[in-house]
Amino acid sequence: MTRMLVRRLLAGLLTIACIYAITFTMVVSIPGNPFQQGQHRLSSDVESALLARYHMDNNWLYFWEFLRGAVRLDFGPTFTYADWTCNQIIAASLPISMSIGLAAMLIALMVGVPIGVTSAVRRHSWLDISATTLILTGISLPTFVTGSALLIAVGVKLQLAPVGGWGTLSHLPLPAITLSLPFMAYIVRLTRAGMIDALSADFVRTAIAKGASRQRVIWRHALPVALLPVLSFLGPATAQAVTGSFVVEKVFGIPGMGQHFVNAALNRDPGLLLGAVLVFSTLLVAFNIVVDLLYAALDPRISEAL
Amino acid sequence: MVRTLSPLITLLIIGGICWVSLGGQESPADLTYANPQGIHTLDPARMSWTSDFRVALNLWEGLTTWNPEDLTPTPGVANLPPAVSQDGLTYTFTLRPDARWSNGDPVTSADFVRGWRRGMEPGTGMDYTFFLTDHIVGAASYASWRREAVSRLVPMSRLAREWEIDTNQRRLLEDTFGTEERDWPRTHQDALQRHASLIDERFNRVGIAAPNAHTLVVRLVAPCPYLLDLLAMPIFLPIHESIERLRSRTNDLPITEQGLVTYDPQWTKPDYHAHGYGGLVTNGAYRLAGWHFKRRLRLTANPYFHSAASVQCQTVDMVVHENVSASIMAYERGAIDFLPSMSVPYDHEIAKLAQTGARPDFVLTNVLATYFLNFNCVSETVGGVPNPFLDRRVRKAFALAIDKAQIVQRVLGRGDRTAGSFVPPGVIPGYEPPPGLGHDANAARALLAEAGYPNGEGLPMIDLLYTPNDSRIVQALAHMWGVTLGATFNLRGKESRTLADDKINRRFMIARGNWYADYNDPTTFLNCLLTGNGNNDSGYANDAYDTILAAANAPRDTAKRAALLRRAETIIVEDDLPILPILFYREPIALSPRVHGLFPNARMWFPFRYVTVTP
Amino acid sequence: MNRLRFTRSRQKAPVIVGGLLLFGLLAVSLGTLEHAIQWHNVQTLTGAIRHEPSLEPVVPLTAFVSGDVGHASTVTKLAHRATSWFGHDDLGRSLFYRVWPGLLVSLAIGLAAAFIAAVVGTTWGATAAIFGGRVDRAMMRVVDVLYGLPYILMVILLKIALTEPLAKLFGGRTVGADLAILLVAIGGVSWLTMARVVRGQVLALKQQPYVEAARATGASTYYLLRHHLLPNLVGPVLTYATLVIPQAILQESFLSFLGIGVQAPTPSLGRLAADGIEAVNTFVGFWWLIVFPCLVLVIALVSLNFIGDALRDAFDPKSNQAALLS
User: Fold this and answer.
1) What does pTM read for this prediction?
2) What DSSP designation does C53 have?
3) ipTM
4) Would an 8 Å CB–CB cutoff place C316 in contact with chain B?
């Protein structure tokens, strides 16, 4: 068990290092100037002084200097928002994205799992078909459409929620629901498939033969096994959800993490971009390890194999 | 056990994170306005966005400021008019004695010297450094002396740490030190020390002097008729001395190991207290009370401001709404009082509501800004294809072929004014730009044929670069050129940074451009097209044009100067067409009827100190 | 093991409905293609920005038919009437003649991305599985790393980084170059799942008794590949390729929302939806700009998902599921 954990941690570190190297290479190779801000073209003198100040005139040096800061959890300055450090920006935006992301995952699970189970139990019934169709419609619309539709309907027409921004609990539900839809669709699919498998498994048949009630078989015996695939989906999905979604943040005007993945790239802000990527990949690796541990705890076959 | 507890724990975690992210709810401000972007910086030496200027100029007050109704320079910290020498080169400003910083300290001329010096230092000044170096005696040579020193100290500092340096830097050092091995930490330290000891003496040669606490003397390179207007810009703001606590030091020297003068960038925060710093101190009508990244920025009235008694609006909130549509919806619900920007794809509907009077709270404002297209005037080929726009007849034909009225009225429908000239007419006192070219399809076709492309035959497919915001206008233009001239287009939408890069490297035939006036004088536009100017994306070079503009600097007779400038602009907009002016922006703003004393003006300058809000 | 098994009629229903809907959409798109090519970028109604949908055409027949109006065929007249069915956009272009070619462009992007995913993913996954050992571990580590990159960021960076080199490759001046960049950016990240699926499939196949038997009798790797592995891979690859199509179409819509999707004036459903959503406001309802593109988008994607899901159900669900998830 411990050996497995150490191995996973080392592999995770290697993954993060590779991600850093790839992102860095791409960031320094795209055209565009991080210091070009307003309408004025920066004079080359001023620009070279700035590049030298941040060691950005020498990519190799910059690579190591940034890495050196990053391992001490210091992502250095940003150029788009010069008065803030990358750390401050991430510290300000990550909790917001986490609130929305976790709420979204909660919604996705609480709605998605029951629908998936019902669909599986009454396979090919009209209930199953209509639920799948509804879910598919939900994910066939781009998030910017579903989000805007919610914003207009609930925020403007019904006036039940504020139209965008962040600051009170009432700002949370709309973006969380919007963000949950694609995850929910995936969870429904996985639960349904897992449940169908589980219901045809031997141990379920045994349970039925023993005379356990239908409800008990479904929820107590079959569901835990059926949820294993959902669990392994939750790792990467949660990492993605808690680091924010650009579209949801843009539609609802939320100052979360997701914007940095897009804006920092468009603004050529290497520090913020690399910082955001490192936070994302660290969370991803961490959640995957947690999921593996949970998996081992839930499924005796696997914990033996480890 | 675990099964029952785990949901509870999960909920607790989520609740905890929510609580952290939400923060306390603040009481609503007297006035709330929305900004589509966050504030980029509050450092006056670095800033270059109008939305940043707006906050900075409410926080600080320069020597002069602008009257919000007619934009004429009015007294700020300095009494007007200043004493000007006979030759128009030396200005002596007297500061008002009751000017105070937000901590009660008096504002002195040394604070201005400090602020201006930051503006020209290579580590702190950015886009607007040229305001100082172009006009003040000795500023340009000081700045370049500093930059040269830095370019030598950078490789030395790296060698001192045993880091690699590139060949250019090595060559630079070999010029000074020869090729033999050296004790680099020592050499670097000595050089740093020597340079640090010279800085102040060198700076004293710059034409800014503070003979006493209430007098500031500025010496200019050449007479500058618009100096008082210029001095209201953020780069000329004073900076409180407490910033010196946050200055970076190397071994007791007040510069970094690279020779730069830098400050902890946190100095603009109201609640930053490292090294005994007391938080941001400003001298304007407001002080900064809080700043949440990309969420909210709060200004409260500065009790020490010289006219504090007249300030009605005690708190102002700037909230960030990246989705402009959402901010309009929030305005409609009454959560926001003022929208300085309403650029949305349906802005023509807003313009219609404003023009018909259906919504008197929507106001259309003529802005001192021009939307134009750059023609590439230098590259022989673009992407391997001959560039037809080297021939000015082709440029002129393209200019004559489009119906700008159609674009402005029917395609955009926002009520912008069609542009014949580069400089917007009727805004700058004493200057009337030439009318420019009109719409004449036949003349356009004739010119194009004369240039060797009858009916567009032989014209290559034309690379037209634009940003997503221009999509409509560019497609309409391409359509018009296609119909009138038979030209075909490769429309290339680019995000703005790539576009800027492509323009600087001249990877375009036609590209969108716009220019917002920095000051109230035609030269803010016309200088962009000087040979070798950094903002001359067209690569236009015309000696005659340069000569006339240079000549226009000399006369003190305003009418004569205006005539010269008009002659220069005529070359641009009627003969050579390095740029094709399309329209002068007219931007809608939304101003709640309960807000009084905010005046929509051409520079989107909104001082909140004159505002009253009826509940 | 990869025989399609549809046991009950209701199980077939989604596939049939999906197939029919998709076929219908394609038929309309192709049927209107001739007029759409001509009309998707014609800005006739310069006086009437964003004209509402109506059954009566706003464009005069004389403007629609170049020749003699009297001799216009019934089809031409119908095509003319259709111009205003979906309303007109902000440049006065017929939305009807933008939505249908938009569908084709979107599908083309989806198909091309699926093709890239299939080719690259299959090659990568199969190579890793066949060689096994260190090669397998290294190749799968690469996939892991690429999975760890924020997807959207990679698409954007690839799009920005590749614009110049690819434009040079294509001679710099074609619409094709822009489309190619988009495809590389989208396809370049969608092959990862495919590689995992294929690898899992090949590993499973390698342990099948008949494959082991063939190997024991001395069959060459090529023979194994040609006669045992590839035929058995067609099913799952096809299934996942079908599921890549809707994903790629949505990704393109996201890039359009950012303003770096398909270049104007070429329409795509994502571009049209993004343009439509930006015009949504509380003053004037330009509902048709968002409703029609989204309607077509939803029908197309739901159909594709129906077909993909059913295909996946029909092939052995168990063997693919784990690979899809990891």
Assistant:
1) 0.88
2) P
3) 0.86
4) no
